[in-house]
Amino acid sequence: MKYFEKLLIANRGEIAIRVMRACRELDIETVAIYSSVDKNALHVKYADEAFHVGEDHPSKSYLNIERIMDIAKKSGAEAIHPGYGFLAENYRFAKVCLDENLIFVGPGWKTIKAMGSKVGSKKMMKGAGVPVLPGTDDGIKDIEDAKKVAAEIGYPVIVKASAGGGGIGMQVVDDEKSLENAISASMRIAQSAFGDATVFIEKYLVKPRHIEFQVLADEHGNSVHLYDRECSIQRRHQKLIEEAPSPIMTPELRERMSDSALKVADVSGYTNAGSVEFLYGQGNYYFMEMNTRLQVEHTITEIITGIDLVKQQIAIAAGESLPFEQKDLSLRGHAIECRINAEDPLNNFAADPGKIIRYRSPGGPGIRMDSGIHMGYTIPPNYDSMIAKLCAWDSTRVEAIKRMRRAISEYIILGIKTTLPLHYAIMNNPQFVQGNTHTHFLQEEHILNTLDRYKRDEETRMQTLAGSFGQEKKVAAISAAVNMYLQLKKD
Ligand code: MV4
Prior knowledge:
Elements: E1 6-9, H1 13-25, E2 29-35, H2 42-46, E3 49-54, H3 65-75, E4 79-81, H4 91-99, E5 103-104, H5 109-116, H6 118-127, H7 143-153, E6 157-161, E7 171-173, H8 176-194, E8 199-203, E9 209-217, E10 223-235, E11 238-244, H9 251-267, E12 272-281, E13 284-291, H10 298-305, H11 309-317, E14 334-341, E15 343-344, E16 350-351, E17 354-355, E18 358-360, E19 367-371, E20 378-379, E21 386-394, H12 397-410, E22 412-414, H13 420-427, H14 430-433, H15 441-444, H16 447-456, H17 458-469, H18 474-488
Parallel strand pairs: 1-2, 1-4, 2-3, 4-5
Antiparallel strand pairs: 6-7, 6-8, 9-10, 9-12, 10-11, 11-14, 12-13, 14-21, 15-16, 17-20, 18-22, 19-21
Helix pairs in contact: 4-5, 7-8, 12-13, 12-18, 13-16, 16-17, 17-18
The chain binds ligand MV4.
């Protein structure tokens, strides 16, 4: 069964390759696009055909709708997969595809647009009986009204931009006298970042967990969820580690949350793959937003469910019915993803692009690697710093953590600094091992101080590491530490 003859991937890096891998298995020819600096990138080599899309700046290349449509037509592609980031949640792009008779692999443009409004989607979900945090039902129109709502729900409250995401324009407010300034600051930031000054207020949850559900919906009214992921370990709203399932999930909570997730998909007329984000705190969960794309961390859901989400996306986009029902799905074991970024965790996560002079990727049982890099490759400074996703699976969470430590100890990247040592430290953090994660984990666990100690005093560092393994594993721990030390140094 061939869904399409040819598909264009409007993206770069590991996700472009991920989509092409599905296409190759489905006998679909692939069309890559590339900016000038990406001429020799792996996604270009992997594709059956590749076209220069424009200069390096995203607005000239991976965001250049007009050029991408030209290439799609010239190449004879029937469908476009947007990956994540870039044009993935741009409803105008999805609409242009529809207007030009190209199939956009994702939900309908109206759904993308509706979910782009936090105020609108929250209101829709509240109306459908999905739990949401108490707050203003619409954008704030006058300060007296805002004060009244804030007093009713009680401080602290949080001011958020309706068009926002990634924490932009978000402000926590502890008392009424700070409210007015916070609202005007938030409106200003929202206006300049999104061209939409709409902001709203809701009750602030202290140190919540971030739990999301993967859903798939076809164009014939069938929908399923593919369990949950926890994405609480993040820095400045960039996720660092995700795991599936959430360490705190119980059958009862999963029943309730997945019902809500499917209700979100249902009332929004959702089709294709998406994820429904919730905040969780003190036993309660609240709908936050829906991501209308394939996410970076879709990999760990694939690992625990055995479902290839990209193949399902393509089949759904071709008009197929889902080949399974909820009762056919089950969850097996535990998966963890570490995002490897070309950043220096010991220098405020400054980007560290450049040439990879030594590279050895981990492997063996239960390891999955998705990357767009290789030995000798020069990471350009122009795009996102995520260069690889390292996933470990095992039958229990603790075993998956041990497997991830083992994989990190095998992983050698020289020439650039990466977040690998940070991941190693987190995998050895007792709170993490116990599943005690929340959105303020990095600050609170002083992970970076642990790393700093590694750097300052090699002796102490090795002993710390060896200690966390127990004496008998000392040799392995020291070799892991040496690898980490090398990764922290530029040759
Ligand atoms: C919150 C919150 C606490 N209470 N909303 C951050 C990004 C944006 N999508 C929503 N975010 C938050 N909203 C209420 N009412 C805490 C956060 C938050 C957060 C959420 C998910 C993952 C990481 C986070 C880190 C800091 C704050």
